Structure formats: structure tokens, C-alpha cells
Amino acid sequence: MAEYPSISVVVPTYYGAGLLERVLRPLLDDPATSELIVVIDGSRDGSKELVDRLAEDEPRLRALFIENRGDMGAREAGAQAAGGEVVLFIDDDVVAHPGLVSGHARRHAERAADIVVGYMPVAVPDRRTSDDFALRLYASAYEGRCDIYERDAESVVRDLWGGNFSMRRSDCLAIGMSNRGFTEHYHADRDFGIRCLEAGLSGTFDRHLSSAHLHERTLDSFVRDARSQGAAAVLMPRFHPDTVPAPQAGYYARDLPRPVSDVVRLTRRPRAYAAAAASMKQLLRLAGAARLWPLQEALARVLRRIEQQHGAIDQSLRRGK
């Protein structure tokens, strides 16, 4: 590996002890891994003890415990502690396929781009259940984003999807990975990507740098994510007005048939929102129990719009205060 740049692999984790050993093993099996830093983001679930035990037989592995800073804050702490020329960031539910670290090292040796984004398709169960609609929607959205990456190289950085990406450590530190305005919100990785784009960094997407994303999503987490997406849609244009347009009136009701769009608009009112959100969740469960999968996904997409709108309104009200 002498002709390749040295690579520090950083795995931020937050209550991810259950998958951690499975995530770390293939990274340690790759000869390109100069060091593997597990940043434990304030979680006290046995993650540090697990890493410390594994490190007894693996000198390249070490744990770094920090008080909770969020995904990008944990990644930044790992980059600051790293010694490699390149830092590869892998999420704690992403399992690398053989050669992933070496592949990232090779792309940087080729100077393919400043930021190299690998492929991490969601592991979707073959057998469908009433509870996995959110996971399937997430998987579909991710594949759609990868298709855009392959058509538009600039979008790799502008719409960065973290979890399997690498860049020079010096660029990480110069730009700064964390942004306090996005600590608690979705799209913190996108915010970082836009700041990289504004700094002139380029990106490339490579499907051969493959991994499996063992993502889990419940109805409750689906709703939380949708609200956070709405809040981020309000925040993003404030930080990046030249890159991200502010959502216009009626944004969350766009492209929906008339009766449905009217419902979404109506839920701007607090009482209507509470009633509609509760009803949609119940209908989702009923559609799943009846195995009406297309109906369930259609209901989920409408619920997502309603919750995104609620998150955007709530964020705007907080700013007004």
C-alpha cells in the first residue's frame, strides 16, 4: 500500500454497540486501514468497553469518548484525533464490503476528487412486513440520489449523503465539519457538503466502493426525521442563501392531487395537524395489516409532507421568538 495515502477510518457511534463489532471487523481486515478510531458520542451502552477489548489484539483500533455532539461533531472529533492523510468516515450501521478502504485510498491516489463517496445500499428484507414501509421509502430515496450522483458530479458534494465518504484530513480541519445550527437537525451532512462546495472542493461517487447499510426505521423515527427535514429546509437557506432556495408558500402540498394537497395545507393549523397526523398513522397501520403496500406507501408520503411542514413551521416560530 506504499503508493497509497495513509487512511484513518473514523466510525462515530451513538448507542450502536449492537452492530459495532460487525462494522469494525471488515475495516480492520483491510490492509489500507492505518488506524481505526471509534468516536463514542456520549453513549454509555458498552461501546467503549467493547472497543477497548477488541483493541487489546488490534493496535490500530482505539476508542475516543466525547460528550454528545451529534454526527458531524463526532466526525470532526475523529478527524482531529486522526493521523492519516485521508479520513474515511463510516457510520456505525454500515458494513464495508471487502476492499472498501483500499478502494478509497486508490481513488485518492488517483486524485479522482477531493471527496470520494462510496455506495451503501440499504439492506431491505426480502419478505415484506407491515412495519418496514419507512425503510423501503428510505432505500428508494437513496437509490434515486445515487442515480443523480452519476449524472451530476457537483451534486455529490452539494447533496452529500454521509455514511461512506472520504477526504483529506487537512480539508476536514480547514472547513470544519460541525455547524452548531445543524447539531440537532437532519441534513447536517448536506450542510457540510455545501460548505465544501463553497470552498471549491470537488466530489466523485463510486459504486464499487460498496457497503451494506443496516438501517432501521420505525414509524416514530420516520416522523421525527420528517420533522427534522422540515426544520432543516428552513435553516439551510439561511446558511447557504446562494445555493439553497427557501421553500415557497404551498411547498409541502406541491405535486399532490387536489383533495390531498388541500389536506396538507389545512394541517398548517395546529388542531388540524394534530387530528390529521393521528389519523394518518392509524391508516398506515391498518393498510399495513391488510397488506395494501401501495396504499401504505402513498399514505406515508403524505404523512411525511405533513410532518415536514410541521417541522418547518415550528422552526420558523422558534426563530421568531
Task: Explain what you see.
By secondary structure, this protein is of the alpha/beta class. Strands 3-2-1-4-7-6-8-5 form an eight-stranded mixed beta sheet. The chain has helices at 17-29, 47-55, 70-81, 100-109, 133-151, 153-158, 169-175, 188-198, 219-239, 258-266, 270-289, 293-320; strands spanning 7-13, 33-41, 61-66, 86-90, 94-96, 115-119, 164-168, 203-213. The protein folds into two domains: 7-217, Spore Coat Polysaccharide Biosynthesis Protein SpsA, Chain A (Alpha-Beta Complex); 220-320, no CATH class.
Short description:
With 321 residues, the protein is α/β, with parallel strands linked by helices.
Write the layout of secondary structure elements.
Blueprint (H helix, E strand, L loop, with lengths): L6 E7 L3 H13 L3 E9 L5 H9 L5 E6 L3 H12 L4 E5 L3 E3 L3 H10 L5 E5 L13 H19 L1 H6 L5 E5 H7 L12 H11 L4 E11 L5 H21 L18 H9 L3 H20 L3 H28 L1
Parallel strand pairs: 1-2, 1-4, 2-3, 6-8
Antiparallel strand pairs: 4-7, 5-8, 6-7
Helix pairs in contact: 9-12, 11-12
